[in-house]
Amino acid sequence: MSPVLSAAITFALVMLGLALLLAFAQLLRGPSAQDRVLAFDLMSVLGLLAVLLLSIRYGSSLYLEAALLMALLGFVSSGALAKFLLRGEVIE
Length: 92
Hints:
86% of the residues lie in helices and 0% in strands. The protein is flat, with a radius of gyration of 16 Å.
């Protein structure tokens, strides 16, 4: 891997870590439940991006499978939380 790509991946991981901290602060502080759900969804997307960057850094396809699982679970959990906020129940 070239030194420029390595430095760019390191920089991107640091920025994703900072964004995760800010999203976690919003998750704790959020004035409404909708803000907390949105912060949780943002955290799942940022975690997914971090796993994809680690896949590029280490050249392993195992990370891609983990990223696919994270994307599926993040999508389903966001949908379930949104339905809970709208109706007050998840399973009808």
